[in-house]
């Protein structure tokens, strides 16, 4: 995709109340309101990206089930029922995607991409064996330590630390440091992570089988959250499925340095589906 085309795609940010919490929404394209916009600019397809972490309040919204319901609440309240969807889930977002298909099978999903999917045996993965004791057994120690260290820290110091880390990773122009070191945000992330380790255990083969024709799995060869063994197992159980193994050594956290490569792969995979619309 050339630079001229990138500049033509408008991107705007909104904060909405969804499920009782303020939710950041990034919208790409010449549209703002899918319900009320009936012009030619209204898209026929919505690509809904579900990253790694509703008129009614959602119980335990920062937990695993709450996060799934939060995504469904957004679709119910901001996306018309007749809107065709492409779902893109990364990491635990892949688990959310499968659960959304299971809970609301009537969603008009053309394709769902599950990128580096943490959909099974999370606590048994190389990273899971390290994260499980930290997030499940010593979570409150992390809470107290984070609060004592970060709460009194001035915002300028936090911003300086984050910017310095991003500079070392050559990301100073890519990410905003907002709220990254807020104790409340870190506590919520640790809480969700602990539930992931405990609850994401058995692969949901029933849901995968029901929606296999619209699923694309993309596993990594160097992924410590879902190792190559998991790819081999699911490939053996669903040989007819679109289950791919990365050949470019792209890491689990691809968004940092390999976002364009993954975006190109998804765009190429969608060409046939989009040509039929």
Automatic annotation (TrEMBL):
<dbReference type="InterPro" id="IPR029058">
    <property type="entry name" value="AB_hydrolase_fold"/>
</dbReference>
<dbReference type="GO" id="GO:0042632">
    <property type="term" value="P:cholesterol homeostasis"/>
</dbReference>
<keyword id="KW-0378">Hydrolase</keyword>
<protein>
    <recommendedName>
        <fullName>Lipid droplet-associated hydrolase</fullName>
        <ecNumber>3.1.1.13</ecNumber>
    </recommendedName>
</protein>
<keyword id="KW-0256">Endoplasmic reticulum</keyword>
<dbReference type="GO" id="GO:0160077">
    <property type="term" value="P:lipid droplet fusion"/>
</dbReference>
<dbReference type="Pfam" id="PF10230">
    <property type="entry name" value="LIDHydrolase"/>
</dbReference>
<dbReference type="GO" id="GO:0019915">
    <property type="term" value="P:lipid storage"/>
</dbReference>
<dbReference type="GO" id="GO:0035356">
    <property type="term" value="P:intracellular triglyceride homeostasis"/>
</dbReference>
<dbReference type="GO" id="GO:0004771">
    <property type="term" value="F:sterol ester esterase activity"/>
</dbReference>
<dbReference type="InterPro" id="IPR019363">
    <property type="entry name" value="LDAH"/>
</dbReference>
<dbReference type="GO" id="GO:0005783">
    <property type="term" value="C:endoplasmic reticulum"/>
</dbReference>
<keyword id="KW-0551">Lipid droplet</keyword>
<comment type="similarity">
    <text>Belongs to the AB hydrolase superfamily. LDAH family.</text>
</comment>
<dbReference type="GO" id="GO:0005811">
    <property type="term" value="C:lipid droplet"/>
</dbReference>
């Amino acid at each position: 995709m050339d630079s001229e085309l990138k500049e033509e795609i408008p991107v705007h940010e909104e904060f909405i109340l969804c499920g009782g919490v303020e939710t950041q929404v990034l919208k790409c394209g010449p549209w703002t309101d899918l319900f009320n916009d009936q012009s030619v600019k209204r898209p026929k397809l919505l690509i809904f990206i579900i990253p790694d972490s509703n008129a009614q309040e959602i119980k335990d919204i920062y937990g695993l089930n709450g996060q799934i319901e939060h995504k469904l609440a957004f679709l119910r309240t901001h996306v018309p029922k007749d809107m065709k969807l492409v779902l893109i889930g990364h990491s635990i977002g892949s688990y959310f995607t499968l659960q959304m298909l299971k809970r609301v099978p009537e969603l008009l999903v053309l394709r769902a991409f599950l990128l580096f999917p943490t959909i099974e045996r999370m606590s048994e993965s190389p990273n899971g064996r390290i994260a499980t004791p930290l997030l499940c057994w010593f979570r409150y120690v992390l809470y107290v330590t984070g609060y004592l260290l970060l709460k009194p820290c001035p915002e300028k110091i936090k911003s300086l630390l984050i910017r310095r880390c991003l500079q070392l990773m050559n990301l100073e122009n890519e990410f905003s440091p907002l709220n990254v070191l807020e104790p409340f945000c870190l506590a919520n992330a640790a809480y969700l992570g602990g539930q992931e380790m405990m609850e994401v255990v058995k692969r949901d083969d029933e849901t995968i089988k029901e929606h296999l024709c619209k699923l694309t799995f993309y596993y990594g060869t160097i992924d410590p959250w879902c190792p190559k063994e998991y790819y081999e197992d699911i490939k053996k159980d669903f040989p007819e499925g679109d289950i791919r193994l990365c050949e470019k050594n792209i890491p689990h956290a691809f968004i940092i340095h390999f976002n364009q490569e993954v975006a190109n792969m998804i765009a190429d995979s969608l060409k046939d589906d989009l040509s039929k619309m």
